Give the backbone structure.
Amino acid sequence: MAERRIRVPKDKVDFIESLVFKPDEGTGTFESKAQVLAFAAALGVFHGKPLSLKKGHDLNPIRYEIFNRLDFSICGKPIN
C-alpha cells in the first residue's frame, strides 16, 4: 500500500515556506510546513471557511506520518 501524503498546492508553496522558521534569516513562525498547513486548516474551520486546495501540487508532498507526530493537544482532539 502506498504511503499517505499531503500535497502542497503549487500556488501556495512560496507563501507556506515563508512562514517556516529559518534561523539564518530570523524569519518565519512555524517549525515545519506541516505545522503551517495544520494551522491554516484549523483557522479555516474555525472561521467556517475551509477551502479545498485542488490546484497543481508541489513535487514534494508531506508524509502523513509527519502530521501524526505533531502535538495537537491544544486543539482538543487528535487528528486521525
